[in-house]
Specification:
Elements (H helix, E strand, L loop, with lengths): L1 H23 L35 E7 L8 H11 L5 E9 L8 H11 L3 E6 L17 H25 L5 E5 L3 E3 L12 E4 L17 E4 L4 H12 L26 E3 L3 E5 L3 E2 L2 H4 L17 H14 L2
Parallel strand pairs: 1-2, 1-4, 2-3, 6-8
Antiparallel strand pairs: 4-7, 5-9, 6-7, 9-10
Length: 319
């Protein structure tokens, strides 16, 4: 029995490694699809009304919230996160991580080590739990209602960590930038001085044009416009509101009630996701895959080689 279990684990690891190598081989870039203006999403996106620029001395809160997926302590991920932060104005960093089994034991010591590693103002490690069922049994598979709600509940917890510190400092931040801990960045964060009241990252999450403004990976908001993103859906679920009886697709619509996603500007953030392994998903940068993930945007294409090189570096430093 023990030999059988070992064989199954080895086979699974082999499949994971093969998938990662498929996306990481630099020579694969020669066969990558070229940019096709007819399928690009950039030209089809209408502009969002301009807002007064963010003040040069604006206070910014950077919130990284979600499952660490075993990558949050990797030196390459930490280094690239610092590179991303270099594009932001002076800011305070808050980490709200879910104890998904990939962190060391979620103790006070772990939080203190992460705080030092990232230079964070505050760190919180949440238990991995699911919200209580609403309206009977609800599936928890990928993109299902309770799974998505669980993720957004973590968003709310991170937002409340920021609010807690705001009460302590006696004033609110001017801008909140929300990201995920399982992302890898290829360049500094774009200038947020002229950002609209709300903005999301362009591409990476989906190739579907009408869903571009629903990206839940990265969100930037002027402080007065932040609340509904973090509070609306958790509030509906807590109350078992009829609005979530039949969960809409895509669920990200609940982050922007009443069609508010049309007000989201699109930010060209150079990044992609990292899955457990770590496995860098460079296919999201180089073009759209068969499952509809990723997006061929002009701003992402120059980073294909960078993505593969970072993935190879992660391979070489994997413990």
């Amino acid at each position: 029995m023990k030999l059988l279990l070992l064989a199954l684990v080895a086979a699974r690891a082999k499949r994971t490694a093969k998938t990662c190598r498929h996306h990481r081989r630099l020579e694969d870039l020669a066969d990558a699809p070229t940019f096709n203006a007819s399928t690009a999403l950039d030209a089809a996106e209408p502009p969002v009304a301009a807002e007064p620029p963010v003040a040069a001395n604006a206070s910014v809160a950077l919130l990284s919230v979600g499952q660490p997926r075993g990558v949050v302590e990797h030196p390459v991920i930490v280094r690239q996160f610092r590179l991303m932060r270099s594009g932001l104005p002076p800011h305070d960093l808050f980490l709200t991580l879910v104890g998904d089994g990939t962190l060391r034991k979620p103790t006070h010591r772990t939080a203190k080590q992460l705080k030092s590693l990232y230079g964070a103002r505050g760190v919180e490690i949440l238990p991995k739990d699911a919200p209580r069922p609403c309206f009977g049994k609800t599936r928890m598979d990928h993109d299902s209602a309770r799974r998505f709600v669980a993720m957004v509940m973590h968003f709310r917890a991170g937002y409340r960590l920021v609010e807690k510190y705001e009460r302590r400092r006696g004033t609110r931040y001017d801008v909140v930038v929300k990201v995920r801990p399982d992302l890898i960045y290829f360049a500094p964060f774009p200038d947020i001085a002229a950002v609209a009241a709300r903005a999301v990252a362009h591409g990476v999450m989906t190739r579907t044009g009408r869903f571009q403004r629903l990206n839940d990976h990265i969100y930037v908001c002027r402080r007065e416009a932040c609340g509904s993103y973090f509070e609306h859906l958790p509030g509906l679920w807590d109350a078992c509101d009829a609005a979530v009886r039949r969960f809409a697709f895509p669920p990200q619509k609940y982050l922007f009630p009443d069609g508010a996603e049309t007000e989201n500007a699109l930010l060209d953030v150079a990044y992609t996701l990292v899955r457990p392994g770590p496995c860098v998903e460079c296919h999201r940068v180089g073009g759209c895959d068969a499952a509809g993930q990723g997006c061929r945007t002009k701003a992402l294409l120059p980073y294909r080689t960078t993505c593969h090189r970072l993935a190879a570096e992660i391979d070489n430093t994997r413990s």
